[in-house]
Amino acid sequence: MSTSTGMKAIKCSDCGFISPPPMSACSSCGSDSVAEVELSGKGRIYTYTVVHMGFGALKDRTPYVLAVVELDEGVKMTTVVEEMDANAVQVGDAVAYHHTEENIGPIFRPA
User: Fold this and answer.
1) Phi, psi (5° rounding) for residue 58?
2) Given 19, 25, 44, 59, which is the most exposed site by the fewest CB atoms within 10 A?
């Protein structure tokens, strides 16, 4: 039985480059032969910062972890990591996609 993460990306049929949508042509090789794929939603924190003064949709969530997550597929994306202790977060921590919020984007949580 397969489980859907609901996390989508665009993959180039020519060079294999994967990027978060939207993308109508490959930003790596320029090919317009791209298709939507589903990502595992699993990854690790590549780098991060702890935000103490938020703005917009995140102004009432401080402090929060803003991280670049490298997914198992090699895609790196900037995202908010919820339910993570801002004092204990480390590069390499395992995280998983949880949901997408309008005006914020993908939200991850510790795996």
Assistant:
1) -105, 5
2) 59
